[in-house]
Amino acid sequence: MAKANPARTCPVAAFQKMISGKYKLRIVWDLKDGPRRYGEIRSGLLRGTEGSAEITPRVLSRELKALTATGLIDRKDFGEVPPKVEYRLTRKGKSFVPVVAAIRDWGDRHLTEAAAFVDAAE
């Protein structure tokens, strides 16, 4: 008997697989306000991060390709030189924004509790 694929049988596992990655949720959140070019997305990801960690172009490209493959974002190439490419949320991606907003709201409410717990443990 073949083993069932958990991503097919469990919606939570499928969701987790779709949004796994360090930057996907933040990319979707940044695109909620409208289309962005690659450099704007990269700059948006660097805001609000601690330290000087920067996202590498390879990682950002991989995350954007994965989000495109899942149908959450759309890539529009204008066919110009120098290259001009925009990313925007699809209808499916727009329906995902309230989920990210709920995660953000939960973080706003509970982040100070978690930070206090981590500080106390150290």
Automatic annotation (TrEMBL):
Tell me the GO molecular function terms: DNA binding
Xref: InterPro entries: HTH_HxlR, WH-like_DNA-bd_sf, WH_DNA-bd_sf
| Superkingdom field | Bacteria
Q: Tell me which residues make up the HTH hxlR-type domain.
A: 10-115
Which keywords has UniProt assigned to this entry?
DNA-binding, Transcription, Transcription regulation
Q: Which PANTHER family match?
A: TRANSCRIPTIONAL REGULATOR, MARR FAMILY (PTHR33204)
Q: What is the protein name stated in its UniProt record?
A: Transcriptional regulator
What is the protein's species of origin?
Bradyrhizobium amphicarpaeae
